[in-house]
Amino acid sequence: MVSLSLILPIHNAVSTICRCLDSIITQYRSDFEVILVDDGSTDGSTKICAEYCNVDPRFMLLYQDNHGVSSARNHGLLEARGEVISFVDADDYLSPTYTNRLLAEFEQRDADVVFFGYYRVMNNGCYVERHIPTLDKAGFLPSMLKLSADNMFGYTWIKAYRRSAIGHVRYQEDISLFEDEVFTCQVLKDSRRISAIPEPLYYYVVSETGSLSSEPRSDYCFFRDKIFHAWQDMLSDEQNKEKVLTAVAEGCLQASTFYWKKHDLNEQVFFRCLQNSSFVRYLILNHSRLEKDFPREVRSMFERE
Q1: Closest CA to 304 of 289, 286, 284
Q2: pLDDT level of residue 286 (50, 70, 90 thresholds)
Q3: Cβ(102)–Cβ(201) under 8 Å?
Q4: What is the pTM of this model?
Q5: DSSP annotation of 213
Q6: 264-290 b/e with 16+ CB inside 10 Å = b?
Q7: What number of CA atoms fall less than 13 Å from residue 107's CA on the CB side?
Q8: What is the gyration radius of the CA atoms in the chain, in angstroms?
Q9: Taking the C-alpha atoms of 124, 121, 100 and 81 in order, what is their torsion angle to the nearest 10 degrees?
């Protein structure tokens, strides 16, 4: 019987994949499968994964052309047989208690989605931060808001899902930022039984140069708007959702402000996307403040609405 399916997209991860797979092999429980999805690797990752599959029958290797991480995760979901589904990134690794604690939580709490803690570490193993999820006793809405405020909501790898809760939901392959948060919102729209494990089970390896080294996106606000729409849809049937949606909208605006300050962007494109975004429109309609750090001419543009 397969209790857990670990889905692991791989693209040119030759320098980190062994550490990741070794952390899976040494898990305390054995009733899981590992679905390795090679997303068009060209660096030798495929050969390494094939060697692990030859040694351990729980490992399965799938191949596809390079279509991106969302496509790879969806490919893995098609093959998954476990009652519980979780996702691992090839440059990260797991605590030895990962499968044991995760499956015990699902078995004891009858949850649809289980959040868990993680360590942020450097590639050399040095610790940076420790993050622990906590839920609000007041219920689903306050819990979602708290998880989001604590940066414990969006990431794919800080939660696991009951396969029946995922159903036909899939990652959106036409967006390249925040697709993990959109996926989570879509699952939680109809699956409200959540639980949290107050200990780190996952090691998230941060880049030596930091995340801001990636190619700047002048259309960043377009992808932030996808998050806002996903939260709106998830909470569409909730009666007291305004506080949460306002917090999400303000979070999207604050993140956009930070991104704009840190990158050399095409400001015409960036501010056009920002002005047309639903989260800004929502804040205007609800008389919420706009970020003071935007240039005067940009703020006046919004104020004329």
Answers
A1: 284
A2: confident
A3: yes
A4: 0.90
A5: G
A6: ebeeeebbebbeebebbbbbeeeeeeb
A7: 8
A8: 20
A9: -90
With vertex at residue 245, the alpha carbon angle to CA 243 and CA 251, rounded to the nearest 5 degrees, is 105
Q: What is the pLDDT of residue 213?
A: 42
User: How far is the C-alpha of 190 from the C-alpha of 200, rounded, in Å?
Assistant: 27
Which domains, and CATH codes, for the chain? 4-211 (3.90.550.10), 217-303 (no CATH)
Q: Report yes or no: 210 and 107 within 8 Å, Cβ to Cβ.
A: no
Read off the pLDDT of residues 147-205 as tens digits, 9 standing for 90 and up: 998 889 989 999 999 999 999 999 999 998 999 999 999 999 998 899 999 999 999 99
Average predicted confidence (pLDDT) for the chain: 90
Mean pLDDT of 63-69: 95
Query: Which of the 8 DSSP states describes residue 216?
Result: P
Question: Closest by alpha carbon to 102, among 60, 151, 157, 52?
Answer: 157
Give which of 107, 114, 236, 241 is closest to 165, Cα–Cα.
Answer: 114
Longest CA pairwise span in the chain (Å): 66
H/E stretch holding 98 reads helix 98-109
Give me 273's structure tokens. Answer: 């996307």
Strand residue runs (E) in the chain: 4-10, 32-39, 59-64, 84-87, 93-94, 113-121, 127-131, 159-162, 194-205
Tell me the C-alpha distance between 59 and 61, whole Å: 7
Amino acid at 199: E
Alpha carbon distance 250, 245 (integer Å): 8
3-state helix, strand, coil in the chain (%, to 5): 45, 20, 35
- Our measurement of the distance from residue 296's CA atom to the centroid of its chain's CA atoms, rounded to an integer in Å, reads 34
Buried b (16+ CB within 10 A) or exposed e, 66-94: eebbbbbbbbbbeebebbbbbbbbbbbbb
